[in-house]
Amino acid sequence: MTIAATPTIVESPAAPAVAWQGLRSVRLLDSLSDQKLADLATRCHWHRLEAGQVLHGPYLDQRLYMLSSGSLSVSSYGVNGRELIIGMITAGRFFGPMAPLECGSQLSVEVQAVEPSLVASLSKEELEALIVSDVQVVWAVIEHLVELSSKLAKRVVNMGTLSVRGRLQAQLLEQAEQVGVEGDQALLSPAPRQNDLARMLGTSREEVAREMSRLTRLGLLRREGRNLRICHVDGLRVLLEETR
Prior knowledge:
By secondary structure, the protein is an alpha+beta fold. Helix content is 41%, strand content 22%. The protein folds into 2 domains: 8-159, Sandwich (Jelly Rolls); 162-243, Orthogonal Bundle (Arc Repressor Mutant, subunit A), CATH 1.10.10.10. The protein is built from 8 helices and 12 strands. The chain is elongated, with a radius of gyration of 19 Å.
């Protein structure tokens, strides 16, 4: 498990004044005017993270967290210490518990910055006031939960029914769809790290490296500096269907 420094919590008045525009990308807050958004920013706690730092609190407290910039990974650890990346959080997403802590056991996870990141968090009371004041916020939460449930269900099925080869192909296709496919190609920038892919798929870096090399030899992948190009997205889909 990575041991990281405690994140800096920025609570000075100047920080929200500069950073509130970053909240504009958070889907939960789409319906808020600039004035309401700026006012909300002053009531947030701001957490500034460097790459590798752990964000303490999410899924343990009752605060809602919103990623203004950067990216985060969400990991869990087995009793043997093996890490599994449950998911990635990109800028504009919100996360945290959606139910009272007493309703069941807490989820043991670690949220870590993949790159320099800025996170805003709201107390339970502030979140409840926000929901009461704007019905569009409620719909945003519902849409988020539906999307999250669909992604988790798909991942559980893949983990239970696909080989490592198939899970890697499915993960590359998912990332291709996230960045956008043009002319049967997709550019992943920067290229996903093999260690991260291995932790997402519940396997070793060596297995990921072997399969990435095979896909490269087949002409489906190509490294371009720090980026990875999926040269034939449809071809990758065909391989995945053959694996199922």
